[in-house]
Design brief:
mainly beta, seven-stranded mixed beta sheet, four-stranded antiparallel beta sheet, 0% helix
Length: 118
């Protein structure tokens, strides 16, 4: 059973930066995609950024130009650099990895809180 362990959340003022990390527990882990979702109170979970097969990255429109996803394959870790944070970025951020071909399965981390104050 693969575990995704997030770190790096916290409290920051608007305009500040945070860097999230997500480490997969198995070195042989090779998901179809791996990235970040977020869920604000009273809202649905939404995609923030992710890597797909072929190392292609994609971003939600609301973070383009502010957030950058990166990875260190040697450490089985994905990062999310968040710059110019806004109060509306406040949410629990979850690491996600999708595996499987015919029968797909999602692994989720426990989540890390990001709070941006105005």
């Amino acid at each position: 059973q693969v575990q995704l362990v997030e770190s790096g959340g916290g409290l920051v003022q608007a305009g500040g930066s945070l860097r999230l990390s997500c480490a997969a527990s198995e070195s042989t882990f090779s998901p179809n995609s791996m990235g970040w979702y977020r869920q604000a109170p009273g809202k649905q979970r939404e995609l923030v950024a992710r890597f797909s097969r072929g190392n292609r990255s994609s971003y939600a429109d609301f973070v383009k130009g502010r957030f950058t996803i990166s990875r260190d394959n040697a450490k089985n870790t994905v990062y999310l650099q968040m710059n110019n944070l806004k109060p509306e970025d406040t949410a629990v951020y979850y690491c996600n990895a999708e595996v499987g071909v015919v029968n797909r399965y999602d692994y989720w981390g426990a989540g890390t809180q990001v709070t941006v104050t105005s």
